Amino acid sequence: MRLGISSWTYPWAIGVRGFPAPVRPMRIADLLDRAARLKVGVVQVADNLPIHELDSAELRDARDQAISLGLKLEIGTRGVEPAHLLRYLKLAVRFDATLLRTLTRSVEEQTTLEQAEKWIREVLPEFEAQGVTLGLENYEKHSCRDLAALVRRLESSHVGICLDTVNSLGALETPEVVVETLAPITVNLHIKDFEIERVPQMMGFAVSGAPAGTGKLAIPWLLEQMHPDKNVSAILEQWPPLRDSIEETVAMEAEWAERGIQYLRSCGRT
Q1: How many domains, in total, are found in the chain?
Q2: Mind giving me the DSSP string for 65-117?
Q3: For the segment 114-128, what is each residue's pLDDT rounded down to a tens digit?
Q4: Domain range holding 10?
Q5: Low-confidence winner among 46-60, 98-112, 159-173 (lowest mean pLDDT)
């Protein structure tokens, strides 16, 4: 299992729409440097740091930097429209990325699994020809069972699941259900720890992020469920709460990342 970080390891440092922005938002070069300092081998550049917005010089510099640091890049986006997937497939090939992670939901629309299947079938031959695997991430819109059924209907070694450990709580599916359903077809793992606590008035619960290894996610058990022969990437993602200032939040986020990577290494499977 290959350990890595993502642009979703540092969402506040990059900037969250509608909230205070950091003085100097993290860019792709900063993310790659952070990966090198943490001594991880994989970086997933996802939809909160959209790689298609980089100009040709920035794309070239990012590729050169990743090569010089010995980092394997993975690409992330949202949406399964054929033109969009083919655009990102070209970017994946440019970065020698063998994984493109996406969600069926784009910023503009929710897509049914029936429509997603039709669109993916249109572009799947191109993904297979280029040796790039499409990883569909689970989230609250679709049940894990339905998402797994879609992947199995597509019958391709170049389509699998990006398993997120928290997203499906919104569909009342626990990590145990998610892993049991999706682990056999997982090509990419998002490790995101969390807490569930009663709200102060005791009427309801709040789900929030936690540093990896300190929350309710049974990470050693999770890693044991991953097929050892598939050599999936294990990407640390985080949901840090907003503190009194964006500067304090960004500092806490970075500290969580260091603790999280250290903890994942101690688990012995990464």
Answers
A1: 1
A2: HHHHHTPEEEEE-----HHHHHHHHHHHHHTT--EEEE-S--SS----HHHHH
A3: 999 999 999 999 999
A4: 2-266
A5: 98-112
